[in-house]
UniProtKB/TrEMBL annotation:
Residues 47-63 have a biased composition (Polar residues). The lineage of its organism: Bacteria, Bacillati, Actinomycetota, Actinomycetes, Kitasatosporales. Gene3D superfamilies: Immunoglobulins. Keywords: Membrane, Signal, Transmembrane, Transmembrane helix. It holds the Pfam family DUF6049. Residues 42-71, 100-123, 484-511, 722-790 are annotated as: Disordered. Residues 101-112, 747-763 have a biased composition (Basic and acidic residues). InterPro entries: DUF6049, Ig-like_fold, TonB_box_CS. This is Secreted protein. The chain crosses the membrane at residues 696-715. Residues 1-46 form the signal peptide.
Amino acid sequence: MAEAADFQGTSASPARRWLRRAGTLLAGAPLLAGLLQLPAAGPAQADSSGTVSVSLDSLSPSAPTDGDTVTVSGTVTNNGKQAVTDAHVGLRVGPQLTSRSEIDSVARHSDEPQSGTGTEVGDKYEEKFDKLAPGVAEHFTISVPVDKLDLGDDGVYEFDVTLSGQTSAQAWDQVLGIQRTFLPWQPSEADTKTKTSFLWPLISTAHLTAKTGAGELQTPEFLDDDLAKELAPGGRLAQMVDLGKDLDVTWVIDPDLLASVDAMAAGNYRLQAADGTSTPGPREHQAVAKQWLAALQKAVAGKEVVALPFGDPDLASLAHNGTSVTGSLSHLKDATDVAAITVKTVLHVTPSTDFAWPVDGAVDPSIMKVATSAGADRVIARSDSLQETGGLPYTPSAARPVGGGTTAVVADARLSTAFEGDLTKAGAATLAVQRFLAQSLSLNAQTDKQRSIVVAPQRMPTASQAQAMATALKALQGGTWSQSQDLSAAAKDKPDPGATTRIPPRSAYPSSLRRQELPKAVFDQIARTQDKLDNFRVILSDQSRVVTPFGRAINREMSTSWRGRRGEAVGYRDGVEAWIDDLTEQVKLIDKSETKLSGRSATIPVTVQNNLVQPVGHLVLRLTSTMPTRLKIGGKAYDEQPVEVSGGHSQSVKFTTSANANGRVTVLAQLYTEDGQPYGDAVSFDVKVTEVTPTVMLVIGGGVLLLVLAGFRMYTQRKRAAARQADEDGPGTAGEDTGEPGNPEAPGDRLPEESDSTPRADGPEQPSDPAPDTAPESADPSGTGERVDR
């Protein structure tokens, strides 16, 4: 304004120059503020940085050709406090963008009115509004023949939708809002087409637990019913299949997802409840799962299918935190081995298991080593990790031989990240599609050399992101500068000799990804759970009932999907370990109270209980005396016996013992597996040895003493009686008037001092009789002790 007030050829006064400079500074302040707060690269979206925001809800066709009519629709919203008058929405074609970085720059400033714009197409192709009230949104639709856009050579053009008008404070026509996007222009077939491989990922979070029902069907238990929501019509996974079936893509599938859906389709499944119980899953979800599987089988028929290791293990976490834990790499090998079997069983196709896919394609030497340790010789990396250092003027092909027979398949970072962020709003999705197509065409125009480019999007696209991906792919595959190619073909393609093959060092791994890794403690817990599983499985008659669900659950514990979900990950791992503990405790020793041992030898029973539904064996029960000098088990300090128990039963195992002295002895009972590993908790109990008890000794001693005294008294009394008789009869009268000769007593006579209670050897048992070696068995409760069998 100050410059316009000056006349050409005259000198401005100092005061006027000062005013002009001040005005220039004030006018430039918003631009400076905008430059200092540039938005991060990504799908550009309209915001309130201008007076009016412009949302571009649709642009069709996305890549027009000769004879097409371009139709643009969207909304304009007055974000200011003053009404906008004499407003109109117009279309402007900006300059041709000759590099991929120029496209990035336009995307970063997509809604800044201060940036330069092209010339409007013309009054005929605009939509007018007499007035835009504050806070009010108005819809618009404009159609223009492509030949009216004055597009020149083939390439990418900036394409702007602007809202121009006046306000009471600024009463002249000006651009008050803008939305910049891109118009790919390749009306005829390109001389050289880029071969594009687009990965279509079917991956979800962990849904199945390690728990299964006790019956023959082993009813699976799910964490929740979220999977059914994803499979239902309109759900994320349902849309991925419905959209992908019409696209030339490489399906990248986590076999765990297929196994989970297949388990739901079987009909009988249960849902975990907060109180530790479970409830039956809705029967109608069985039909949903069956329908989804049937649709997927049709969608992948004739297409390339890549199977990730079961559960999609986090390769970076394993490389950085898990390799120091024994057995961690074996889980990756197991997950890889079961992947092909699962996919072939469920989808009836043979997948490729040659590919490993680290998170976001970020690699370092340790990740490459772990990724290929299970047999995969192709690692899907990304160009923002494996960056070019050779100064190539174009984007090289994806395949890079990195040594040791391993190929890094480097996905293009710009194309792979084009559909990230919130695309639920139509304006954001449209901008993402146009930017993707612009980058693809710009890449193709870099050189006449044909190249193979790979697009590896985010692992779990939302429904809106998947819809944007599908829209862009349909335009690309129906366009004139790209042709579809499978991932395996891209990996086998001839690499560019100038492309970098140097794997970045570990220090270059992004810190944002490192913060989300599974820590070493996770792999320690996995190893502990595996040890418990190994110890438990050896006693089972049917190991598959436990090994399979727990093995797959351990694979899920290493899943990439736990990133950003630490609390849920901890809960899942704790649940798996708690369940193996609970199953292990179903085979146990029954506690014993104090046992009384009367006599020199007896047998001690120890009971093993099996609450599992299947028989157990390969167990050894060891009974150990802590004082073998007093009590021996089987003639030594301890004895062992093999144990086999039917499902749902108990088995009593008897041990022969011998006592050498009275007293109390602690005995330990412990189950062992056949390889000598302790199984379950030991049971200890006391054995009270009473070979000859004090009470019995007292009774026997008292009885003997009474017998001796009675016999002595009888002897003396008889002797005295005989002497008196002799004195009364005198000499020579012995035997006169008596009974049988020589009998000192007549028949039936007895001494008056004799008692009827005198013990008799053949009479009934009396209190003074000797006690038996051990107490008789009693049917009554034993109270504080147990009696043992003799």
